[in-house]
Prior knowledge:
Blueprint: H1 5-15, H2 24-38, H3 46-65, H4 72-78, H5 80-86
Amino acid sequence: xxxxxxxxxxxxxxxxxxxxxxxxxxxxxxxxxxxxxxxxxxxxxxxxxxxxxxxxxxxxxxxxxxxxxxxxxxxxxxxxxxxxxxxxxx
Length: 90
């Protein structure tokens, strides 16, 4: 089963320790800060760095293609199928 888009974006925001309303410059700045602390060349591990990279790419793609707000309402506007599916229990 595919992960819910809201959950994916919320997880990405959590990985980078970001609020729900940011701009692209803030995202890039925060990515650099977190990546520099967790990079394998500087004592971090590859798993954490891969998670950080995925989070950054997901958020960057969302911001470039859709919106700057990461509220559930805004995410559901971009991924309406997830809101529809979330109304049913599995």
